[in-house]
Amino acid sequence: MINKVDYQIELDQIRVALGYDFMSLALAEPAEYDYVIRWKYASGNTNDRYKRIVLQSGRGIAGIVFKTGKPFLIPSVQKDVKPDTLFNYPITKMENLNSIGAVPVWNDARVAGVLLGGFRGERQVTAEMLRDLDRAARKGIGDLNGKELLLS
Amino acid sequence: MTPGMDLRSLLMTKLFENSSEAMFFFDRQGKALALNPAAENIVDQDILKQLYQGNPEALCGTCRGYTSETELRTCLNCYFHTPDSEEFTSYQVYLETKDKGIVPYAATFHTIDDENGIRVFMLRDLSRQFTTQEKFYQNKMMKHIIEAQENERKRISRELHDSVAQELMSAVIDLRVLKYMTADEQLLKKVKQTEVSMTRLLNDIRNLSVELRPAALDDFGLEAAFRSHFKRMEQSYGLIIEYESRLLDKRYESEIETVMYRVCQEAVLNALKYAQVDSVKVSLTENDGVLRLLIKDEGTGFIQGGEPNGTGLGLFGMQERAELVGGTFTVDSGIGRGTTILLQVPVGLSRGKE
């Protein structure tokens, strides 16, 4: 396993390169922790609350991306999310994000992590930016190789 | 006339004039002979005129049917045409009143003068008793619904926990054993991936089971259920719950435990959703036979009775649940003051038996 610092530095670099206010990476825990998914690294975060959260597969942003393996985009949390469903996306609330995009991080044809980028102010994540985010994830992060297909 | 008779007729006159009970006197043909003021008050002017003119159908203008043995409201076998039958010594009738709409009355209809065929129709307003009765009924229904819901949840939750999760668990263990049976790297990698997915699935099923109804609540009581619920809240939402408890008993009646748990669940979820806080204080104590649950946050608060952020049904639901076990439920909140929710339920000896 590559140590912690590498992921953090890589994440910081991706955030600077793509210009997001906030960026985080969710990874599965090792067997001792039942392989639960957590937001392991964050860049541009305002607090450490994200570390407490255990994500459930199929729930929340990371959960959905993890399960479906598809990118996920909320251009404006204010406009696109009904207030009563807002709590399905706790990270938006914790980090006060108004626009988010998330993509799967592949490893050997399995979703191994979720990369999320978001803005706090008026700026919105566009479909094009989501594609850039996806491209970054497909280059691989840390020891995840980013490959969706084993043959490629 | 004897003084006794004098007094009696005086009393009867007073009764006629001042009684809150409506009285209608009819002759053999169904013509109204007299109506006391209470009766005149409930009948429409137009119908009043018809009654005095002797239209035998006049009463139908205001009557909306009576409750027979088989129907709630019917005109079948009208009481008006068959006085002095057993059925009509005391029965329920609905009248369209002048200013209160359709009102239920307890009625009697009987002959008081056989010779001249004079009959009296007396009515007593039942709407107050009706509302109370309805409230009781609603309460009872609500209790049944909640009970049914909890039972069903308990059943499904048990099934998931005891059978589905167990089976899956043994499958996961079988998979783990595989790695001692082969050295094939590729196969092991695949098996590992499967194991990861299945472990995650197992966790999902456990979560589902606990969310439906925590087995801890039935098996170990409030204390255990609260602690595991708070841990889950922290894991799912990053919300820290400062919990303290001083309980004299380990277990309470299942009904009370359920109410406590559900109210707490709802209140904490509300704090999480609307109060903009990342910590909530919960305390559970028992004092003088009263179980007290206090949930306090220092968040944004809200205006009570104002336009709700959510459905507004949560508070109502908590109130309902509290009432079911004879408890009291109070909310104290204001903009910028945070919110305090207090649930008090009598337990043990002081608990009123129904």
UniProtKB/TrEMBL annotation, chain A:
Source domain of life: Bacteria
Gene3D superfamilies hit by this protein: 3.30.450.40
Domain named GAF: residues: 9-115
Pfam families attached to this UniProt entry: GAF (PF01590)
Name listed for the protein in its UniProt record: Control of nitrate reduction
Lineage of producing organism: Bacteria, Bacillati, Bacillota, Bacilli, Bacillales
TrEMBL record, chain B:
PTM annotation: Autophosphorylated.
Residues annotated for [4Fe-4S] cluster binding in this entry: 60, 63, 75, 78
Annotated InterPro entries: HATPase_C_sf, HATPase_dom, His_kinase_dom, PAS-like_dom_sf, Sensor_HK_TwoCompSys, Sig_transdc_His_kin-like_C, Sig_transdc_His_kin_sub3_dim/P, Sig_transdc_His_kinase_NreB
MF term (GO), any: protein dimerization activity
Keywords: 4Fe-4S, ATP-binding, Coiled coil, Cytoplasm, Iron, Iron-sulfur, Kinase, Metal-binding, Nucleotide-binding, Phosphoprotein, Transferase, Two-component regulatory system
Catalysis: reaction(s): ATP + protein L-histidine = ADP + protein N-phospho-L-histidine
Coiled-coil intervals, chain numbering: 139-166
Subcellular location per the Swiss-Prot or TrEMBL entry: Cytoplasm
EC number: 2.7.13.3
Function text: Member of the two-component regulatory system NreB/NreC involved in the control of dissimilatory nitrate/nitrite reduction in response to oxygen. NreB functions as a direct oxygen sensor histidine kinase which is autophosphorylated, in the absence of oxygen, probably at the conserved histidine residue, and transfers its phosphate group probably to a conserved aspartate residue of NreC. NreB/NreC activates the expression of the nitrate (narGHJI) and nitrite (nir) reductase operons, as well as the putative nitrate transporter gene narT.
The protein's name in its UniProt record: Sensor histidine kinase
Organism of derivation: Paenibacillus etheri
